[in-house]
Amino acid sequence: MIHASASRRVGFLLALLCCPLVAAAADEEKKADPPNIVILFADDLGYGDLGCFGHPTIATPNLDRMAREGLRLTQFYVAECVCTPSRAALLTGRLPIRNGMCSDTKRVLFTDSLGGLPEGEITIADTLKGKGYATACVGKWHLGHLPQFLPTRQGFDSYYGIPYSNDMKPTVLLRGATVIEDPADQTTLTKRYTAEAVSFIRQNRDQPFFLYMPHNFPHVPLFASDDFKDKSLRGLYGGVVEELDWSVGQVLDTLRELELDKKTLVFFTSDNGPWLIKNRNGGSAGLLRGGKGSTWEGGMREPTIAWWPGTIPAGGVSRELGCTTDLLATISALVDAPLPDDRVLDSYDLGPVLLGKGESPRKSMLYYRGRKLMAARLGPWKAHFMTQAGYRQANPEVHDPPLLFHLEHDPSEKYNVAKDHPDVIADIRKLVSEHEANLNAPPSQMEIRQTGSTRASANRGSRRFTRRTSSERAARGK
Ligand code: MG
Fold first, then answer.
1. Which of 420, 437, 454 is the last residue of a domain?
2. How far is the CA of 201 from the centre of ligand 1 (A)?
3. How open is the CA angle 75-78-82, to the nearest 5 degrees?
4. What distance in angstroms lies between residue 404's CA and the mean position of ligand 1's atoms?
5. Fewest C-beta in 10 Å: which of 78, 237, 299, 425?
6. Ligand 1: distance of its center to the CA of 300 in Å?
7. Domain count, the chain
């Protein structure tokens, strides 16, 4: 016979012994029921353009709520300061210099470009497809508009969107590889992207899904629907951002309504900093220096929010380092998918940061502009070997010794302290030389030159898409 207090002790000991089993069972359950993944990606939104990142007059109640319910990341980067290479990096977990998606002369892909993201690259969509996820890309692709480069060749089941920037002609709207509108009506674009995204979530509510939603805005030219265009204190730019905020709200509300919010990681960020040369039609990097096209902080540090109610602690702020290239490793770990082992990745698992359980494994950042490594960050320190202001400066200014800033003391990069810290510069030079020793950069996809015969066909860019026949258009009343 066991005495009652002894019985309680035995029970307690048994519970202790079982704890690892319970934790392991919870882990197994998570793997058996992996989260949905949603990536919301703005275009040219600046670090200072959201209410929850300090903008005084742009109203972003949905993103502000997302931040209150999730995690704001204040030292989160993209891998390049313009559209095409930044997107290539996010999807592949690799610096663009490793997959050919960067160039010093053609900074992004254009409508006469013949290259694109090589099919051999492994994207987040490929990874999740391999785990049985439904996958959709809704929005701006900009990783090659020829048929062999479109999203459906890179792990996505479906595609709906403008395949490049909204200032490029012809500004066609595609479904799959078929043009369904030319030119696309951009005033309703954000609304239609949103409807498409919501519909995809509803259709796949009973299975794991991956939604990659790269918006075309607030890249210029700016368009907003009648509901938003004249409403913001910040003028048309503010209206465009406020419509994006509304779109985020629609996506999150759909997840809440379907009771998928606790099963879905939603990640919001931007592809590069604000396009400052567009003056009032461009955004703001807040207190950060520079913008789109430059490797100052304003070009590459982004307003970032991660949301997963019940898993990511609410209302947090992380000042740990992270980069869009880390999403591949982070998501792969969450869904228990293997990482590619036949190539160099620039991807760290940020799980500990998102779950509030530890430090970021990322301790450094490399700042590329095209094929040039312009700057490097190690811990709080950033050394600029070269600087180039935005878009229009012809050649970079070389700095030897490099400029050195302590980004946590001096986030605006105002006070060069290089002469006081030669040891820090030596450490950063070592980081760079180790990176360059293992770099086998392939030729640029963006510099594929058009010969006489290819130029003629490339100049017929719009004809390279499949188009609806006149009877199909008539049937749809267009
Ligand atoms: Mg952009």
1. 437
2. 25
3. 135
4. 27
5. 425
6. 10
7. 2
Query: Do the domain assignments include residue 17?
Result: no
Residue 151 lies in a domain: yes
Choose the catalytic residue: 81, 83, 137, 323: 83
> Tokens at residue 16, please?
């202790």
Cα angle 274, 138, 114; round to 5 = 75
Let me know whether 191 and 256 are in one domain.
yes
Confidence label for 8 from pLDDT (cuts 50, 70 and 90): very low
Chain centroid to CA 154: how far?
16
Separation of CA 220 and ligand 1 centre (Å): 10
Q: What are the start-end ranges of the E strands in 230-363?
A: 264-270, 304-307, 316-318, 322-323
List the catalytic residue out of 142, 145, 219, 384.
Answer: 142
Distance, CA 437 to ligand 1 centroid (Å)? 30
Neighbours of 419 (CB within 10 A): 9
Q: What is the dihedral of CA 53, 323, 355, 55, to 10 degrees?
A: 0
466 vs 157: CA distance, rounded Å = 18
Give the pLDDT score at 46.
Answer: 98
In a domain, 206, yes or no: yes
Annotated catalytic residue 83:
yes
CA–CA gap between residue 133 and residue 155 (Å, rounded): 10
Do 244 and 372 belong to one domain?
no
- One domain for residues 190 and 168: yes
- Contact residues for 378 (Cβ-Cβ < 8 A; gap 6+): 363, 364, 424, 427, 428, 431
In terms of residue numbers, what domain contains 376?
368-437
302, 329, 363: which is the final residue of a domain?
363
How far does the centroid of ligand 1 lie from the alpha carbon of residue 259, in Å? 33
Q: Are residues 171 and 240 in the same domain?
A: yes
**Contact call for residues 454 and 146 (beta carbons, < 8 A):** no
For residues 245 and 272, state if they share a domain: yes
H helix intervals, 104-234: 124-129, 189-203
CA distance 180 to 466: 9
CATH number at residue 91: 3.40.720.10
Over the stretch 32-64, which tens digit does the pLDDT of each residue have? 689 999 999 999 999 999 999 999 999 999 999
Give residue 478's pLDDT band: very low, low, confident or very high (50, 70, 90): very low
Residue 472 lies in a domain: no
**Site of tokens 């919010």:** 261
pLDDT at 415 over 60: yes
Respond yes or no: is residue 142 known to be catalytic. Answer: yes
Residue length of the chain? 478
